[in-house]
Amino acid sequence: MEFYEVIKERKSVRKYKPDPIPDDVLNRILEAGRIAPSAKNIQPWHFVVIQNPEIKEMVAEACRGQRFMAEAPVIICGCALEDIAWGRMGGYMSSFAVDLAIAMEHMILAATNEGLGTCWVGAFVEKDVKKILKIPDNVRVVALTPVGYPAEVPRDRGRKLLKDIVSYDKY
């Protein structure tokens, strides 16, 4: 798929077919996350690939009961290594969340290019997700996404016009 078409085609999918994702496809998606840029090239991330049906059910429950997540053959949990992330972004914050978000978006766009659907999930109870996935205390869960073949075409939710979100030379 052409790059700008991939960006336009990406939508939040909340209904998935049970069809498995071939290993080579999943590896290309994960590779897209691996090669993402990060502040100072620290790459402060770790990705948990969840395929076990029972674990997917528990994670979906920890994501505020978003049961659709467990329908997908895979859930990717994006974890940030806050302790090693660059700590002076903008002179006031750590880069861990931004770095992880870039890597997750790379994977989400790669999944779209492969004909798969995803849904950025930020509604979760971190302590519950960490307990289920045995994530260390010093690691932060930033986002999760189910990955699978869409069972329906999501509706277009629209976007603001460029003129409403962009200014030039000053705010």
Description of the structure:
The protein has 171 residues and is an alpha+beta fold. The protein has one domain: NADH Oxidase. The protein is built from five helices and four strands, in the order H-H-E-H-E-H-E-H-E. The chain has a four-stranded antiparallel sheet with strand order 1-2-4-3, sandwiched between helices. It comes from candidate division TA06 bacterium DG_78.
Brief descriptors of the model:
oxidoreductase activity, 4 strands, four-stranded antiparallel β-sheet, Nitroreductase, alpha+beta, 5 helices, oxidoreductase, NADH Oxidase, 171 residues, single chain, TM1586_NiRdase
Determine the CATH topology.
Answer: NADH Oxidase
Rough outline: globular
Unreliable stretches: none
- The number of E-state strands comes to 4
Name the helix and strand elements from N-terminus to C-terminus, one letter apiece.
HHEHEHEHE
Residue share in β-strands: 5-15%
Question: CATH homologous superfamily name?
Answer: NADH Oxidase
Average pLDDT figure: 97
Radius of gyration: 17 Å
Number of self-contained structural domains: 1
Indicate the multimeric state.
single chain
Sheet with the most strands: spatial strand order: 1-2-4-3
Gap from first CA to last CA: 35 Å
Structural class: alpha+beta
Q: List the total number of helices.
A: 5
Q: Please name the CATH architecture.
A: 3-Layer(aba) Sandwich
Helical fraction equals 25-40%
GO molecular function: oxidoreductase activity
Domain Nitroreductase: 7-65
InterPro entries: Nitroreductase (IPR029479), Nitroreductase-like (IPR000415), TM1586_NiRdase (IPR029478)
Keywords: Oxidoreductase
